[in-house]
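QA checklist item 7 of 12: single-chain prediction sanity check.
[x] sequence parsed
[x] length recorded as 223
[x] structure emitted
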Amino acid sequence: AAFADHEGPALQVLLRDVTERRAVEHRLQQNRALLTAIFSSLHGRVAVLSRRGVLLEVNHEWHAFAVRCGADLARVGVGANYLEVCRRATARGHEAAGQVLAGIQAVLEGARNEFALVYQFEGPDPGWYEMTVHPLRLATGGAVVAHLDITQRKKAEAELQAMREHLGRLSRVTLLGELTASLAHELNQPLTAILSNAQAAQRYWATSHSAPAAVNNKRRQPI
């Protein structure tokens, strides 16, 4: 600062130590960079919403998916209101969008601890997805929205169900074979006894009818 005294003009220089402030700013920048890196590395499409549903942050997959879909980034990127996106989709007749809208609002308002929805997507990156919404544990509120690709899990579940059905059919066939063998065994014993009795009766009948004929032949021989 410049000033004048009885000896003439003078210049006063004030020095302020900002080392601590610069260190804090540096740490904040590092933390911000770390959080951004972690957020961008999260699996699936992830976004952070404010209490009013405004997109505060989106990861790389969220942004890349919007580009592949040809969406207006001004409407689905940072600064856009995700609730309005859901309302527009609901107005176009998307039933799932109405469920998503109600679920997100319930989480933001504290009426629900979480919301989840499994849906099938037919556009770019077709497959099965699971959407989850969890409250943001901050005084200002908000929520974390994630869309995870569960196509492989759905395929595995379908294959497992088909295998169970196949094993069920094999089990029924095996059981039927065992039942048939058991019935055959149970029926074979009385049938064998009946056959033995019938054969014995035939032998007895043959013996009893052949004996008189032999006696008559002896009587007809001359003396």
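[x] summary fact logged: Helices lie at 19-41, 60-68, 73-76, 82-91, 95-108, 151-219.
[ ] second reviewer sign-off
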